[in-house]
Amino acid sequence: MHPTDHDDQEHTMTSTFSRTEPGASAAALAELLSTIDDWSVDGDELLRVRSDRSGWLVEGLPEVVIRVTSADEVSRVLAFATLHRIPVVTRGAGTGLSGGASAGEGSIVLDVSSLNRIHQIDPENQIAIVGPGVITADLDRAAAAHGLRYAPDPASAAISSIGGNIATNAGGLRGAKYGVTRDAVLALTVVLADGRILRTGRQTIKGVTGYDLTSLIVGSEGTLGVVVEATVRLQPVPVETQTVVAFFDTVVDAAAAATAIGLARLQPSLLELMDGPTLHAVDDAQGTDYHRRGTAFLVAQTDGFGASAEIERITAVLRRGAREVTRALDPIEAEELVRARRLALPSIETRGRVLIEDVVVPRTRLAEAFLGIQQIAQESGVQVFVIAHAADGNLHPIILLAAEEPSEREWHVAGLIFELALRLGGTLTGEHGVGLLKQRWVRGELGETGSAVHAGIKSLFDPAGILNPGKSF
Amino acid sequence: MHPTDHDDQEHTMTSTFSRTEPGASAAALAELLSTIDDWSVDGDELLRVRSDRSGWLVEGLPEVVIRVTSADEVSRVLAFATLHRIPVVTRGAGTGLSGGASAGEGSIVLDVSSLNRIHQIDPENQIAIVGPGVITADLDRAAAAHGLRYAPDPASAAISSIGGNIATNAGGLRGAKYGVTRDAVLALTVVLADGRILRTGRQTIKGVTGYDLTSLIVGSEGTLGVVVEATVRLQPVPVETQTVVAFFDTVVDAAAAATAIGLARLQPSLLELMDGPTLHAVDDAQGTDYHRRGTAFLVAQTDGFGASAEIERITAVLRRGAREVTRALDPIEAEELVRARRLALPSIETRGRVLIEDVVVPRTRLAEAFLGIQQIAQESGVQVFVIAHAADGNLHPIILLAAEEPSEREWHVAGLIFELALRLGGTLTGEHGVGLLKQRWVRGELGETGSAVHAGIKSLFDPAGILNPGKSF
Fold first, then answer.
1. Residues from chain B contacting residue A236 (CB–CB below 8 Å)
2. Distance CA A233, CA A122 (A)
3. Rounded to two decimals, what is the model's pTM?
């Protein structure tokens, strides 16, 4: 069903396999691959899967990329890998931002992007059953035909796949009101490391039979099993959405306004904050003039039957501290205003390679976090842009790199930002995952007992330690 | 700090301990108790903790009831119990409906109801930190002072405690729109079976560092650890709530209306269905005349800034199939209309002892579930009342018992209802938990691999198998 490119590559394959030490013999792996529809040992392909969108590379080359076409294939590959203790790195769209899908020396890459069927949309029960390779925006579009949507809305929705969203428990712009990926996943079919098929959860909205294995798998970054099917909840598309933007003199004023919106007991469906450097980057790339209107920008949306009434209340709160407040008069103007936020990352990326961070602080510490990051940037001479999902205290400090790879100084800045977040009562990662990038800090956050329990769960699910080793926990 | 009643009970204690076989020697247990502030071996107390609100009793008498006053005490008791392999049954308000807190022969009952402090309400970050013994409604009231509420709303809120809500992942009337207990819990402090203290989650709204141990503990019915502190999310109290009730000729019409509300992409904050027998029971107990107005009753609420607009749309949907539709004109009338639902269970209970079931079916199978239960009741000659959280397909069939304990025939009826739910694509329990009541069916729903993974997790957390043995999984 997909073009296979192994026919003319037997030589490459053999030479690659000769590196296997320890692991399967070339003969054993060749025997496995003889039962697999679609795989590749093409050099470019092996280079490609060494990294994800974070750009993080690991040492060495993987053995082979298997583009699986069924749960049964996944099961056979994992059973084989467990038997021979070969690392398996599951990969979907490869849009991760923490190196979670980066595959290293001697590993089998399990590319699940061909498991991209929307098996069912049940508009009456508001659920969908999908393969992990389905692009998030495609599911959203399919649901829209029934007045529904897939509520989690990662900024990467147009390019990321549901499997990756599940692996990282992806958040997104609607998170504070509508929750994150974990809140939308009702059931999973998971292939365990030894090849057994585990079905978690249920097709109903509620259910408490047994332990919540669904939530355990969501966010486990491919270290506990391979998701081959997911049942997700769909939500009604709101009847109306309203938008307001505000420009502030300082990022502290903007953060204070975000906090004030929460204290007024208002619930924006979107509340995004961008700092001055980000506004400059957007202006440079898009030809806008945001930075002349203020040094920080907040965009808020409300939705549902009360969208108009609620946006008025939010507008009133914003007027207290902002230099300029603009209500969108129609959906086109609204889209234009939100566009500034959606284009922020691509705009910054026109300046060079970036390292995208993802810390969370309690909402009331948002201003301190912005100031702390500013200070870290100034003292280190490294340029940092900050975008925040302000309603849940999730900041994305974006570190502009001087070269293709982060330097020691740039890593040091990332570390200072993590430490700042923890000091403010926050966490290392809100929605991108630990991956490889945050390995140094993860045990500190989990604590000794937490780390021990994590290790126990990892051994239970994956006794040979083959699943995405070195990632997440 | 609490009255202790062990001073004059040494004789009882000793005679109780003599039953310990296997377990700690009387001397060892006495040594442990000498370090504990507040415990009892009073006969009435030991009889009381053999059951919860389900009425399910287990064989034999527990050893002792320890009313713990600190996490450190919990830790010492569990370490002792693991060493001596003594079963520990954690107990809060004792309002469970599945026998989850029923303590049997030779067990230590860990009564956490004294851990009932609201440690902190942080109105800016919209979180609360509470002990497990806090009564759910008390937390809700404390939050209300800040314009906030604890969104999960089990029907037992006035009498159940947060710890029990966490143990069962309690749902409630607002579940379909605002989620269940698991959606509200951000972080837990859990004492593990060996006495170690595990901290899960975080104080921020978002965070994906590590596996979701918080969700794993929520709903685990006291089998994986003892929760001694919880950080929960608080939500704004909606600015407005609107209410409508409808009476129908048949329960099938009412179920169809509930499905139609979902299909119209409306999101009631409450959608409760009661069948004809339940209306009769309410009328008999409360002096109302609901059963003359229809044989099924649906009450819907909307809330938030769009409450009025949304209730109008719901009213229009109801008018299509209902015999009579009444909009509440003010909050007092609304409270009166919702009261019929809140009084349903107490009204049925005036007729005798009941067995309360808790199955879930896909929302579109609601009518079939009602008809199937009616048929089971008719064929068996057992009286069954049905109340449903209609928006999430969660039915509570309430079996009226002929005697104090369920007969074989009554158990058979419960079993037929479970099987019906599973046949309709549903689940055994939506919010009450498996406890003891559903032990016979749980492995069937989890499947072979699911059961094996559950057993592995149980052994990991509780290698000696002391924590609430025989409950949940």
1. 265-267
2. 10
3. 0.93
